[in-house]
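#help-structures
NK: newbie question, is this the right format to request a structure? protein is ATP synthase subunit delta
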Amino acid sequence: MHAASREALANATRTLDATLSGGTNAVAVAAQTGTELFDVVEVLDGDRALRVAVADNSATPEQRSGLVTAVFGGKVTETTLRTLTDAAAQVWSTPRELRAGLVQLGRRALLRAAEQQNQLAQVEDELFRLSRILDGEKQLTRLLGDRTATPAAKRQLLANVLYGKVNSITETLALQVIGRPDSNPIDDMANLAAAAADINGKAVAHVVSAVALNEVQEQALAQKLGRIYGREMSIHAEVDPSLLGGMVVRVGDEVIDGSTSGKLERLRTHLV
């Protein structure tokens, strides 16, 4: 996103968080807001003129918000409409970035619903596991990435795979990713898992180890990394036997390679 859109999204996110904080039926309100924001994105995807008009910075914020109210008023809840009018009043660099911002707000609303149900850690873990499943199941990933298939068909395929196996919020988020991915669906799932960790006040450490870590090892690693980076850590772990031993840890752009294969490669390079 361009700078203006990043600021717009930050402003809209603060408004959304304030709107969804507590209150009666907080879980249901947050979940419905997220779902309705996804529905609005579908409408904007199918109506270029509306999408452009809502992000038209030559119009006043009041005019853009008024347009949103005229189109969606009475069709979504008051909470969703308040989120939409606030987003429309912001300055977005392009209509495409406004659309992307609404997707992010919808996702955050659903993650807030999970948080209010004390299920955010579960949703985070399930989203990360889904990203690893998609990375490993090439045939499924190809089917979900088929450009000739409709978003509805892709969602139905994934819904059949996920049925009864994940939290309902995880399923809703995953189906949105598959129907309208912001990037590679595998990365999109992983980014959503990281967003869930962030709401929990944690940074993500991607850990690839030669053998699976047990719960005690993961906790010890999280504590050690937390001391290094000065922030509580969420461990997203997977196994790669080709490492031969040890592990590779990535936090943001920083990579710590303590694997046996990495050590051998560095030794080989040094000898050459």
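mod (FA): yep, format's fine, and the tokens are attached above. The chain has three domains: 1-117, 119-199, 203-270.
NK: thank you!
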